[in-house]
Amino acid sequence: MLRVDHAGEYGAVAIYRGQQAVFSRSPKTAAMAAQLAEMEAEEQKHLDAFDRLLVEREVRPTAMTPIWNVAGYGLGVATALMGEKAAHVCTEAVETVIEQHYASQAEEIAQDEPELAETFREFREDELHHRDIAVDGGAHEAPGYPVLSRLIRAGCHTAIRITERI
Q: Which helix H or strand E contains 69, and what residues bound it?
């Protein structure tokens, strides 16, 4: 569980960095870059927490970390190059998968690990906030929204399954 969450936060940081690399290049998209930097900072806090938890609980990170880094950064760059609304589609899709993941994890461990369940709930709220920012930013108005959203969500689910095993 912790390995998957660590990988997810690692990927989220990489996605936001990839998007910022594109949007920070133009004054026209400076506001978007600043918004992404704020969301990345929240994801980095989550990643730092999972870094500590992995060490405390002697859980090894996934061997897929280098691949998730490249894939996340690439997804961020690709969606940013498609425009602000496509970048919002990426955020909305990823954060939807992650918030659902945290919700089910929190429920699953609530009795045995109440502190960890509360951490999952707290992080879920941040993910919901990011998702809402993306929706307000026009994610659903992006050309090809249904297809792009489904592809990104499928990629997230696939990454979760792979990370559970490797």
A: helix 65-81
